[in-house]
Write a structure and sequence with these properties.
elongated; 2 helices; 62 residues; alpha+beta; 3 strands
Length: 62
């Protein structure tokens, strides 16, 4: 995933991996705090009472 991101963004693979790591850490932190994390334009992660994480796509079909 980082390799593809790097090509598309014109950055090194290491920088793309760091960016991806930051996004994942943000999602996990938001899930711990509020039980949900939005990815604008893509959808929302939610954590159930049993600890499972679900992803719900946004209504946009681009």
């Amino acid at each position: 995933m980082a390799k593809r991101m790097a090509r598309q963004a014109g950055v090194t693979e290491g920088e793309a991996a760091d960016r991806l790591d930051g996004v994942v850490r943000h999602i996990l932190s938001a899930l711990r705090k509020s039980g949900e994390a939005d990815l604008p334009g893509l959808g929302r992660f939610t954590r159930g009472s049993d600890g499972t994480v679900r992803f719900e796509r946004s209504g946009r079909d681009d």
